[in-house]
Specification:
Strand order of the largest sheet: 1-4-5-9-8-7-6
Distance between the termini: 36 Å
Shape: globular
Low-confidence stretches: 1-6
Helix content: under 10%
Largest sheet: 7 strands, antiparallel
CATH architecture: Beta Complex
Number of domains: 1
Structural class: mainly beta
Radius of gyration: 14 Å
Order of helices and strands: EEEEEEEEEE
CATH topology: Metal Binding Protein, Guanine Nucleotide Exchange Factor, Chain A
Number of helices: 0
Number of strands: 10
């Protein structure tokens, strides 16, 4: 058997460029749009698209006080909209195995094409 990240058997994370167009819309508001997103695949989790900060409407988001820790990715910080708490997260200093997601943000709901 092979070991996954941090030695946990069977746990895998891959990060690679997505070949899909990614959009994030809430109500009528476009929050992000990118052809440069990264797709992160993690054992037991849905695919997540990490969007470069330059492709996100940061002016619409407010930093949240929420912080979480993932043993595989690191410490996450969150951002909110007035009607959607902790809608967006990022890993400012990710673990080396997923370093590519640095300076990228992830949303719970995205459209891909």
């Amino acid at each position: 058997m092979t070991k996954g990240l941090n030695g946990l058997k069977g746990h895998r994370i891959t990060v690679e460029p997505s070949d899909r167009h990614v959009r994030v819309v809430r109500g009528e508001q476009l929050l992000a749009e990118s052809d440069r997103a990264l797709v992160l695949r993690e054992t037991g989790c849905p695919e997540r698209y990490y969007i470069p900060a330059d492709d996100v409407r940061l002016d619409l988001l407010t930093p949240s006080g929420t912080h979480t820790h993932c043993p595989f990715k690191g410490d996450a910080s969150y951002w909110s909209l007035p009607d959607a708490a902790d809608l967006v997260w990022a890993y400012p200093d990710p673990e080396p195995e997923v370093a590519r997601i640095k300076d990228h943000l992830c949303f719970y709901d995205v459209e891909v094409s």
